[in-house]
Amino acid sequence: MTDVYDTAATVSAVRAAAAMIAGHKAELTRLDQAIGDGDHGENLARGFHAVLVKLESAAPATPADALKLVATTLISTVGGASGPLYGTAFLRASTALAGAAELTPELVAAALAAARDGVVARGKAEPGDKTMVDALGPAAEAARAAADGGGGVREVLAAAADAAARGSEATVPLQARKGRASYLGERSVGHVDPGSRSTAYLLASFAAGATGAADDSDRS
7-211 is classed in which CATH architecture? Predict the structure, then answer.
């Protein structure tokens, strides 16, 4: 297990997140074909591949630097709404971690709250709108509760990942009120929101980095 979640651990988690998204690219594409443009998996996988390329020559000095690299790369390489939204999430999280050499439970909770608030401000979505907020919101709340309850970084990230997964599943009966899916009206009901699913996968990667667990990037 990893007791210290420092820059090296953060970079390792980013690499794991890229592998997770690549492994689930087809699934995310299928989900988006049902209620969106059908390019979510491809776009996000391309963005994280670009992140890996950047990491070959970059040497982030802090966890915040690592997340800022992810943010700027996704914004510049991922099309549609996903690039700005995920970029904003990582950028706001990076700002919350500024100056820290390693993560603490309180910083993790603050970073996730900042990411959520950034996405809400950028996308104007609220809980229940069938968007990534429905995964990121519960994740931030669970992280705060775990940190306030005395949990360590591992516990806080695990709680966030579990809450995000449940939040994503809870989008199935919702009718989309934002984005391309909203054009479908009641036909959007019965489908998982692809942004919420990819959000859950990303958080699962960061949680796995804290626990030493293997990711499930080969599952689709």
Answer: Alpha Horseshoe (1.25)
